[in-house]
Design goal:
single chain; 205 residues; alpha/beta; D-Maltodextrin-Binding Protein, domain 2; 2 domains; 5-stranded mixed β-sheet; Bacilysin biosynthesis protein BacA
Length: 205
């Protein structure tokens, strides 16, 4: 019998084991091993795709796949989670690409990086006032008002068409102009650009 003072009651039952925390779901960015973007080689998007892999520490294992358009890429990219599209803020119909594929394609990253130097170029010995100029729709505003625009699928393709004589001039990157032996008439410099990464996976979003 206790006649006074306080009594501490100690439970002899074992404490419940802690519930293990569930492992966090992998980030979509961590899954990406293939970036599909606009070709042929020499585009700003190709350069940005390689940069993204370097920044992620995956330069040795990441693969850049080039397509004639991002729409064509969207139709052929495997929905396994290892693939993504790389686009840019001025890509024509980017809003359609995003909202038309919400069940399988989501934007997961973006970054600001300058394009290659953008130039107005012609073949060696050609007129400095070309009548026809190849250009991707995005930089079409750089075509002189006195020239007729011929829209093509990329800046790199514009340089190819110019070098092969399909047009008299082109708006392209300095990288593509040099690769195809074109003469630069005017440089517009590098253009600050937002590039976007769109993860592709089949399933419920």
């Amino acid at each position: 019998m206790f006649t006074g003072g306080s009594v501490s009651l100690v439970s002899l039952s074992p404490a419940p084991a802690p519930i293990p925390a569930s492992a966090p779901a992998p980030s979509p960015i961590d899954e990406i091993r293939y970036l599909h973007t606009l070709g042929p080689t020499g585009t700003n998007l190709e350069s940005a795709a390689h940069l993204w892999f370097r920044r992620q520490g995956r330069a040795g294992e990441g693969r850049v796949v080039l397509h004639t358009s991002l729409e064509q890429a969207m139709g052929s990219v495997p929905r396994t989670g290892e693939h993504a599209l790389l686009a840019c803020a001025v890509y024509p119909e980017l809003h359609t690409l995003v909202f038309g594929n919400l069940l399988t394609c989501r934007m997961v990253d973006c970054f600001l990086w300058p394009t290659h130097e953008m130039v107005f170029a012609v073949p060696p010995g050609a007129s400095a006032e070309p009548r026809t100029v190849a250009t991707h729709p995005a930089p079409a505003g750089l075509v002189p008002a006195t020239s007729t625009r011929r829209l093509v699928t990329s800046n790199a393709q514009a340089a190819i068409d110019c070098a092969e004589g399909r047009v008299e001039g082109c708006v392209t990157t300095v990288v593509a102009a040099r690769a195809h032996g074109l003469r630069v008439l005017r440089s517009y410099g590098e253009v600050p650009m937002v590039f976007t990464v769109h993860h592709v996976r089949e399933g419920d979003r």
